[in-house]
Amino acid sequence: MKKLLLIITMAIFGIVSWGESKTETKKDEKKLIVGTNGVFPPFEYMENGELVGFDIDLIKQIGKNLGYEIEMKSQPFDALIPSLKAGKLDAIISGITVTEARKRLVDFTDEYFNSTQVYLRKKGNIAVNSKESLSGKKVGVQLGTIQEFEANKIKNVNVITNDATVNIILDLKNGKTDAVILENIVAMEFMKKNPDIEIFYEEKLPYGMAIAFDKGKHSELIKKINEELKKLQENGQYSELMRKYGLEMKKN
Question: What is d(CA 43, CA 204) in angstroms, rounded to the nearest whole number?
Answer without folding.
Answer: 19
